[in-house]
Amino acid sequence: MAIVRRLTQVVGLANRNRNRNISFQTLDPPSPLTHGIHVFHCPDEVGIVAKLSDCIASRGGNILAADVFVPENKQIFYSRSDFVFDPVKWPRVQMEEDFLKLSQTFNAVRSVVRVPDLDPKYKIAVLASKQDHCLVDLLHGWQDGRLPVDITCVISNHHRDSNTHVIRFLERHGIPYHYLCTTKENKREGEILQLVQNTDFLVLARYMQILSRNFLRSYGNDIINIHHGLLPSFKGGNPSKQAFEAGVKLIGATSHFVTEELDAGPIIEQMVERVSHRDNLQSFVQKSENLEKQCLSKAIRSYCELRVLPYEEKKTVVF
């Protein structure tokens, strides 16, 4: 009988609840987190990492990875932080203000924050000459998303017919191609400056012209070059032949910033491959071209991901 009474109570409770307006509060799904990057360069002192972490955490952000470099016997601090955040809770404008306050607190030389999903891609122009292996690889890297850039134009001192792979690719994707015939007396630098004035940085994809001091100073932004040799050895022209005649056992490619001194800018990336007495000059060149493509592509990605910081006069920190 007790069981019957209990069942009757349960049924009666269910019937009463059926006549009531019962509301359930559903929680809104959490906003998707967005990835951010921050790099910092300032005089070293106690508490920088703590303040940096607090700046991000106080807005609900979470650091996923952090790299710190403090050179021995030098009062300099470098860092790069990967973090995630809710853009609703931490708007982009507020983020800029927060990191600006942090940089002012520590008298920062450099403080840059980037949100790849929200910020515009870097705009670049590519300069190339006759050899197009680096140019083609760069274009395909842009097409498949490996290189997070927008290519505004390609400039070359070498004429290409309309039926070539490069021209067809550029036309298909709406990227202008500018042929500027150069001579020893006229490098067409004024025209180049006009074409690249709205870019964030330039890429020299085997552009076999030396840019003048006036050009570098007038442009004012970074320029990334690929050298088909393992710098600081074998500078200048035909480094593969220089390396072959020197009997080296390793050949390489170097991506570096362009400075007024030829092939002497701060190095961003280097790649090497072993060679032997069985290699001839042609195989040296073939191996070098493969290295050049990989090296230039990686340097551009590192730059866009804020992994490259200037260090001293001729060095870089690459996180």
Automatic annotation (TrEMBL):
Protein name (database record): ACT domain-containing protein
NCBIfam families reported for this sequence: PRK06027.1
Keywords noted in UniProt: Hydrolase, One-carbon metabolism
Pfam families: Formyl_trans_N (PF00551)
Example of a GO MF term: formyltetrahydrofolate deformylase activity
Signal peptide: none
One GO BP annotation of this record: 'de novo' IMP biosynthetic process
Source organism of this protein record: Canavalia gladiata
Domain ACT positions: 37-120
Highest rank taxon of the organism: Eukaryota
